[in-house]
Amino acid sequence: MLSKSMVGKLNNQIDLESFSSNLYLQMSAWAGTKGLEGCAAFLRAQAKEELAHMHRLFKYVQETGSLPVVGSIEAPPTEFNSISDLFQQVLNHEKKITGKINELMDSAQQENDHSTVHFLQWYVSEQHEEEHSIQQVLDKIHNIGESGSGVYFIDRAIGGMLRKR
Ligand code: FEO
Known about the structure:
Elements: H1 4-33, H2 37-63, H3 83-110, H4 114-144, H5 150-164
Helix pairs in contact: 1-2, 1-3, 2-5, 3-4, 4-5
């Protein structure tokens, strides 16, 4: 049985994961309009993963006999200045999510809620992997450079990362 406060926090995280999914889906649309098919596919895959993160939380809350609540979420931005601007925003967002997962973990530990601590461990690992993967994307963008045909090679490189996952 989860505490009321823990259910509220997990439900907030459900909304954050939904927002992440919408954010990356919207970003994929921006990439698509720029002809960046590799980036668009990478971001669509990210959006699907975020939806899976949301469902994982939803299922956990339900399994503990509490009520998962899907709240309202704000609309994501639609315009980005460049590929590096977009992926820097992804990294900033993921860092924010990592902070939220860490706060959740702190609360679960303070409450001696071992079940939730165990459940959240998957998210801790996932955040580490996601931050690492997006940092790799940013490194590629900076190494190749966005001038001239750089954009074409960046798009290929990011599309290639998707195939390796
Ligand atoms: Fe579900 Fe990328 O955090």
